[in-house]
């Protein structure tokens, strides 16, 4: 019997783990599928488009050819053409110099989709066709809420991890401090008080009044008013034991036959969906700790990114990662190998969650500060009570 129950318990434990992880995996998988579908869509719409030379492009080439013919080998004479060349290139469109098949490859389209639903939007890649622009708006309309849902869900996981780590650190710190301050005599007194506090009257089963009086010999030695109080508490405990609701029969069936617990399992899965964002609301860690975490997190990527982006040093990579994780996305720093950085998509999502948690903590601190300022100003404006002599 024991040999058959152990595999059953193992299966039930695996099922519990699966249904606990299922909501989180469902969100991430849906975001990945959404990104791949968008990449295929923009690859065929923007990457396969026909390049038509416009009239503005022909005029640009004519003006550029005219300026080039006037240039000479004397560099001092060519200084007067610098402004003309600068003004000419300011009128140029970036699309004229881009090969759609190279820019809108599958990995390039996937990188563009990630910049859309993460709201980064570097600006160096954007749809040109009318159909591509309409589909980009529709794609962002559903992709951005899905991305925020993933951020909130995974933010709960990070908030739980941060809360537990911070609480364990505080407990360890308090234990070390208590061990330093605690002497032999004081510790013995604390243990004695603790043992007295734990020896409270507990009634697990309903007893009669005579059994209560016989079992508690310490009551007989106490004063009368304390005996009455303790007796009254025991009678209340006995009455509460009688008024407890009857045990649900379906619960007993679930405990004896786990196969019947499918409804209970599904209700727990639905509860997991309903609890999204709750842990993030309860998070309370110092804002300085979050600033240190963000600095270390960005520094790790800034040390790795220059290995394949040769035009970046550590400072430029740190600036680029910060602009990306905060979803500012100026687009002033362009990547030579965006598909390599695309493999850091998990890094981007987790980093955006960390920044989001830091913004949430900063928002809470600002709300507390505003409340204090408003209450302080209200107290100052309150008229002082005048005390009249009797």
TrEMBL record:
Membrane topology listed for this record: Multi-pass membrane protein
UniProt subcellular location: Membrane
An example Gene Ontology biological process: stabilization of membrane potential
Keywords carried by this UniProt record: Ion channel, Ion transport, Membrane, Potassium, Transmembrane, Transmembrane helix, Transport
Transmembrane segments: 21-45, 104-122, 134-152, 285-305, 317-335, 341-362
Family: Belongs to the two pore domain potassium channel (TC 1.A.1.8) family.
Identification of the protein by name: KCNKI protein
Organism: Atrichornis clamosus
Gene from which this protein is expressed: Kcnk18
